Amino acid sequence: MNLPLPDTIRPIRFRDGTLYLLDQRRLPVEARENAYTDPQAVAAAIRDMVVRGAPAIGITAAFGVVLACAAARRQQEGSWRAQVDVAMAELAASRPTAVNLFWALDRMRRILDACASADQACAASLAAAQAMLDEDIAANRRMGALGAALIAPGRAVLTHCNTGSLATGGFGTALGVIRSAWAGGRVTEVFADETRPWLQGARLTAWELVQDKIPVRLLCEGAAASLLRSGEVGWVIVGADRIAANGDTANKIGTYGLAILAREHGVDFMVAAPVSTIDFATDDGAAIPIETRPESEVLELAGQPVAARGARAWNPAFDVTPAGLITAIVTEHGVVRHPDRESLTALRRALPR
Ligand code: MRU
Q1: How far is the CA of 290 from the centre of ligand 1 (A)?
Q2: pLDDT tens-digit series, residues 38-68
Q3: Catalytic residue numbers, as ranges
Q4: Of 53, 60, 107, 226, which has the fewest CB atoms closer than 10 Å, so is most exposed?
Q5: Which domains, and CATH codes, for the chain?
Q6: Which of 252, 270, 293 to mutate to test the pocket of ligand 1 (most atoms within 8 A of CB)?
């Protein structure tokens, strides 16, 4: 069976000097876009989770640089480049773990270095940001095909957080693999962790899968051990916010626990991420900065207190899965089975220059 590839959702658009972001805090209740013309507001949108997911954060920041160039051109005084650099520093400070943010800003910096005027910078930055968006979707399609090919038909998959169209330019990383595997008749259904505290699984992954008519069952993270013991699940498939040079992988908090459970129950564990998520400058997982988010995100649900008054919370947004627990890292440039420093270095050497 081969169904058409389901791919209808686009969270980031740029038109006539304005950036439009689908406000992910409102989903699934309402699909509403916010409009941005100010780079500072874009940095705040990333920090406040209007847009989230490593590749989507990077692409959004790139369009934030486009808006900064336009603002600098309007100013007509002082150095356009100094003004854009201030905006880039604000964008860089929005969230610390997803390396795609810094990858995207570095790429934009190199584009700006070749520009002699604000006019040039406006045109060149827009072309670069749009290319980044288009390349991301193409990379996800490729990852989808490569990852799906690893999955033996007949069982379900389990995923964590949201790694779909909403977390990228479109189609998704881990959810892209799942979309491809579903279209190819390789998965029976999708189990999705609800993903406390932001409920990316319940609100976003389930929304995407329902839109695309892919059967999805949600579970509380605490149910994952029993699910994996049941034998229903062939693969756990997740995305990544940063992969260190040795293959250790930072992803949404709870991913590490899932990887341990998968190993214990003989279930394969796949990480799907573009090469822009691999940080060869970070030696291992211990060196990955992990974002700590406000305690209120755990103590409250949709603004309502759910914890005993006086209790405090520990709220790291990500954890690190050691490379040894990962069966395969799937990138748009190939699959690395049993990732380690050596196999990732080989992937790096084989990348197009
Ligand atoms: O805090 P979030 O929602 O930005 O975290 C997102 C994740 O952890 C994703 O799994 C990761 O960014 C990969 S998205 C393709």
Answers
A1: 13
A2: 999 999 999 999 999 999 999 999 999 999 9
A3: 241
A4: 226
A5: 12-136 (1.20.120.420), 140-350 (3.40.50.10470)
A6: 252
